[in-house]
Structure formats: C-alpha cells, structure tokens
C-alpha cells in the first residue's frame, strides 16, 4: 500500500486552459450584455479563484453573478477540449508520482466538467478522486477541498501528504489543512508571492514530483 499522497491543482499546474478560460469569459460578457472594461491580464490574474469570485472581482454584481457562471459553463463545456493542453512534463510527472504515491485532483473547476476533460487528455486514469467546486461549500484557500479529498481517500495521517499548485490559494489551503506543499512556476502565481507560503518551489510538475520523491516517507 502506497503511503504517500499527492494532491494536484489543475489549471497552471498540470494543464494550460488559459485560452479556453479567457475566451469563455468574453463570451459570457457578450451573452449577458455586460460591458467589460478590463483586459486579458485582468482575467488571467484571477485564474485559480472560483468563477463567482472571478466575476465579482471583474465588476459583476453579486446578485447576477451565478447567471454569468451558468453562461460560462454552458460555453466552456463545448470548447474546453480543443483549447486545453497538458503542460510540458505533466505526463512524465504523473508516471513518476504513480510509482510511489496515491494521487487526486483538488481544483476550483467544476468536477463534472473536469473529469471528461482529463479523460480526453489521457490522464484521468492516474487519479482516484477529483474534488471540484460543486463538491465543497468553501473552495481554496479554505482547507475544506483538501480535507474532503483526504477523507474520500481514507487518509488520517497528513505528514506524508503534499499539495502541488501554482497559486497562493493552493499553498494557503495546504497550510490550513496541515499538509506539505510545493509551488510550481509554470502557472499563474509569481515566485516572490509563492515564496511567502511555502519553502518548496519548482519550475514544473515533474520537478515538484521529483522533490516530493526525495522527501517521501
């Protein structure tokens, strides 16, 4: 029985879905007749947050935010496969991780949209569970998504659990849940900010898994 657990974030950690996310935001703005005065970078800077938070931070009123989320999901499910790609070394990272650890996904993406996407990309087979936005009341940076995933995996001891992510949200959630963390620089977080929340920084998921392998119990 493998004693080590690795939980992976998704966007910016294992996959690049930037084009799909940004284009879908613009589509939803058009559908909802919302005048967006920001830029692509404003949208990208919020990736990793739940959709409802992203929309509010981009100027959408809280009273109608879930209508925007629904418009987003309707379009995202139709274009996500063609506009999403594995980051470099993702497959190799998962192959190595699977040799010494049990793996699951902890994401703010919607789980029922994520699983078909992971199947399309050929990596769903590596993971036991996908904990998405609809599976928790409090998304990252709250520890609930991590704790819920560990509960699903029947894990009580957290000293050998690692969270791999690209933003401070992942790292704060890991710290609050009492698990180890590794930040990757291939996503949306900035190195100086990430260093505030973890002692372990890697360039990509493969380097992160190699680091965890060195520290594994």
Characteristic terms for this protein:
DNA polymerase, domain 1, 8 strands, 217 residues, globular
How does this model look, in words?
α5 packs parallel to α10. The protein is globular. The strands form two sheets. It has a six-stranded parallel sheet with strand order 5-4-1-6-7-8. With 217 residues, the chain is of the alpha/beta class. The chain has ten helices and eight strands.
Question: What are the low-pLDDT stretches, counting only 5+ consecutive residues below 50?
Answer: none
Question: Any idea what the radius of gyration is?
Answer: 17 Å
Largest sheet: 6 strands, parallel
Q: β content, as a range?
A: 5-15%
Biggest sheet: strand arrangement: 5-4-1-6-7-8
Q: What is the CATH class designation of the largest domain?
A: Alpha Beta
Count of domains: 2
Distance between the termini: 13 Å
Q: Name the structural class.
A: alpha/beta
* Helix share, percent: 40-55%
Shape: globular
Order of helices and strands: EEHHHHEHEHEHEHEHEH
In the CATH hierarchy, the third-tier topology of the largest domain is known as: Rossmann fold
- CATH level-four homologous superfamily name of the largest domain: HAD superfamily/HAD-like
Q: On the 0-100 scale, what is the average pLDDT?
A: 94
In DSSP terms (H or I, runs of 4 or more residues), the helix count works out at 10
**How many β strands by DSSP?**
8
CATH architectural name of the largest domain: 3-Layer(aba) Sandwich
């Amino acid at each position: 029985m493998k004693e080590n657990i690795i939980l992976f974030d998704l966007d910016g950690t294992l996959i690049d879905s930037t084009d799909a996310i940004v284009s879908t935001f613009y589509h939803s703005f058009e559908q909802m007749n919302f005048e967006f005065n920001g830029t692509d970078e404003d949208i990208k800077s919020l990736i990793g947050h739940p959709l409802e938070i992203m929309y509010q931070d981009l100027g959408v009123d809280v009273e109608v935010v879930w209508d925007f989320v629904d418009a987003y999901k309707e379009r995202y499910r139709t274009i996500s496969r063609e506009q999403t790609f594995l980051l470099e070394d993702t497959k190799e990272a998962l192959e190595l991780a699977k040799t010494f650890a049990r793996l699951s996904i902890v994401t703010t993406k919607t789980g029922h949209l994520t699983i078909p996407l992971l199947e399309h990309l050929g990596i769903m087979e590596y993971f036991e569970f996908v904990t998405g936005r609809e599976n928790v009341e409090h998304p990252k940076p709250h520890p609930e998504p991590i704790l819920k995933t560990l509960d699903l995996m029947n894990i009580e001891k957290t000293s050998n659990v690692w969270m791999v992510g690209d933003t401070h949200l992942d790292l704060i959630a890991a710290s609050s849940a009492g698990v180890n963390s590794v930040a990757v620089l291939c996503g949306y977080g900035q190195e100086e900010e990430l260093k505030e929340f973890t002692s372990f920084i890697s360039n990509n998921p493969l380097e992160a898994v190699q680091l965890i392998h060195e520290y594994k119990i």
